[in-house]
Design a protein that fits this description.
The chain is mainly alpha-helical. The chain has one domain. The chain has five helices and no strands. The longest helix is centred in the middle third of the chain and has 21 residues.
Length: about 120
């Protein structure tokens, strides 16, 4: 059986930015701010924009244009006044990030276990 080297492309958003979007979306879930103050939607959207832009620019090393564009999209998603939008976008991005890092061979424990020779039958401990 041949082993194919399949790798999943990395996600367009850094996992930390996706997690920030989920966390900001959780504010709507627990506190439901838009019923009290409609300006909270703009505030949470601005926080999502700033968090994603800074993570993409300084951690993921994107250019300013790409970081601002990704920040705008994730800020809008975080600012939607329903506690589902940010989670529905953030969770698949986090799963994508985990799968791409796992499949790219960055998991030392799994790599070492795969290279370890197996015991022949009858020699099990």
């Amino acid at each position: 059986m041949s082993q194919e080297s399949r790798s999943i492309t990395p996600p367009p958003i850094h996992p930390m930015a996706a997690f920030a979007t989920i966390a900001l979306d959780g504010i709507f879930f627990f506190f439901f701010f838009e019923a009290v103050n409609p300006l909270a939607v703009l505030g949470i959207g601005a926080l999502g924009f700033a968090a994603t832009t800074m993570v993409q620019r300084f951690i993921d090393n994107d250019g300013w244009g790409a970081a601002l564009a990704k920040g705008l999209v994730m800020g809008i998603v975080a600012g939607v006044p329903y506690p589902v939008a940010g989670t529905a976008v953030g969770l698949p991005l986090l799963a994508w990030a985990g799968l791409s890092r796992w499949s790219s061979g960055n998991n030392q424990i799994v790599d070492e276990a795969a290279k370890r020779p197996r015991l022949p039958k009858g020699d099990e401990e």
